[in-house]
Amino acid sequence: MKKTIIITGSTGVIGRGLKIFLKKKKMNLVLLDRSKLKCIPEKLNKKLYSNTKYVLIHLAGKDDHNSSSSFQITKINSKLDKQILKIVRKFKISLIIFFSTNRVYEGLKNKTISEQSKTKSTSVYGRSKVNSEKIFQKVNSKLIILRLPSVLSKFSKKGLIYFIYKKMVKNKDVEIFNPLSLFNNVILQNDLNKVIYYLINTNKTLPKKKIINLNSERPIRFINLINFMLKKIGSNSRILINNNSIVSKIYSNRNQRKLFDFKIKSVKYSINSYLNDL
């Protein structure tokens, strides 16, 4: 049966990279923009096809990277959820892939995080994603929730790695905490694209509801990552160690290893590829 992939948030950082990848795979796409929420059902009506299996990839959302107010984040994400639920109810969606964040764990003191860890977020954005997850878990469609780390994409100009990169290219001091802690809180856009393509096309029977933490493989000590970036960039930045300890989290990769028939790239490989694209 023919498949049509509906993508919300197709103009965002992740959405741009994903739609380019899926177009190369000759997938039939319906691209929806967050700025055109009111006309989503009408736009879909014009593009619906008979004898088609529909997959909804829900990327659209408001984060807090641009100093958005708590009210804006809550209001926009709540409105998005309601609009997307209309699509789910009106059209026969066989699979929903919902993009969440590993910031749903940010308030935990646990050093090792898995899908079985409780959610506890300290930010409005993280809490909005927890609420969205609960809402979508009530729908009848098959649901995969992807809790994402920082996605390394050539379109991305935010996040911890980019912040450090900007400091290093200007030879500014870089302050770090917990230098010996392990780090794997990133994933390459291309690896994420492969995950989505796999979930859309796999012949395996997926669970009715599934939460997956996605992260790069082979965690690296943070100080080794910093030294690698210094050498790669050719920076003269000084590394300042802050001895005030903060909770550093490592994310379990067990579920993604079991589920996917390909290997997600290592942290070092992912950082190297990202720096090559900048």
Radius of gyration: 19 Å
State the end-to-end distance: 40 Å
Order of helices and strands: EHEHEHEEHEEHEEEHEEHEEHH
> Mean of residue pLDDT?
88
Number of strands: 14
Count of runs of 4 or more consecutive helical residues:
9
User: Which structural category do the helix and sheet elements fall into?
Assistant: alpha/beta
The shape, in one word, is: globular
Order of strands across the biggest sheet? 2-1-3-4-6-11
* Low-confidence segments: none
- Strand percentage lies at 15-25%
Key words describing this protein structure:
alpha/beta, 6-stranded parallel beta sheet, 278 residues
Account of the protein in words:
The protein is built from nine helices and 14 strands. With 278 residues, the chain is of the alpha/beta class. The chain has a six-stranded parallel β-sheet with strand order 2-1-3-4-6-11, sandwiched between helices. α1 packs across α6. It is globular. 34% of the residues are buried. The model has no long low-confidence stretch (mean pLDDT 88).
